[in-house]
Description:
By secondary structure, the protein is an alpha/beta fold.
Amino acid sequence: MGYGYWGSKHVRVLSSMPDVSVTVVDISPERLRDAAARCPTVRTAAHLGHVIDDVDAVVVATPPSTHFPIANRALGAGRHVLVEKPMATSVPDAEALVATAARHGAQLMVGHTFEYNPAVRRLRDIIRSGVLGRILYIDAARLNLGQYQRDVNVIWDLAPHDISIASYLLDELPVSTAVWACRNIGRRHADVAYLRLDFPTTHAFVHVSWLNPNKVRRTTVVGEQKMAIYDDLSDNERIRIYDIGVDPAGADDAQATGDMPVSYRTGDITSPYVPFREPLMIQDGHFVECIRTGRQPDTPGERGLEVVRVLAATDRAIATGQSSPVFGAPGVAPVLVPSSRAAS
């Protein structure tokens, strides 16, 4: 559903899979013509209702504000659903999608594509091995010039990736967040933001921007023993491990002598080999497998709900100018919020 930037990628990937037939649904006749020209084997339709009885599953790749009504309708019809991030634009809507999927026995999966990225999975293995030591913090940057969105700010547009990456690497959920955000262009949404995510054992800092001259997709993991950088735009060294660090031993003596209060250690820089596989191909192939086998997705609707809860906390942090708890995270008491979701 939807043949925009991400929808066209899903069509390309799914059309390449054996025994998978694809129907493109979009209200734009121009986009439907483009889809048919690029993938002659696909069917096209202007509305989901025209084909809902003829498909087994629906991939929702439309503007975020439309995710809930489309996904909820498909799930209510018993269709399996893969919905792009963010899964919904409010916590009540995300909770409703999870409930609808359970009620109708349908698979609900969220498109947290980077959790299917071989480099991110390798970085998690490196962290779990203990070679980096205790994780002091994670720093992430997701920057570009555009694309400005009509219905969400830059945090809801870009940060779901980095929230999911950080929580995936740490195997933890943030319990609170603080935000600085600024609107530079237009009158609607913040286009630059900095987030602090407070995890039970460490912190993550996320910089997102629609207003940056260079495209940046970088995650830095700083450990006590070593540090690692994952650069998604690197051609051949997407992960680098730096055998460098700081030793605070002797800091008290250094104060008396006037020396530097820390000592530095440097060593080798290594880059493990990570065979490239397109993350979207892995993700969509996993979705098809889950439909065929009944297997629980690696990024189920509950995972999408977790990230939406963090995003909702960033809204509260912006509104109050203070750190906001992530309601629903372990150890954080939930609150009841009236639902304002649209009828499907």
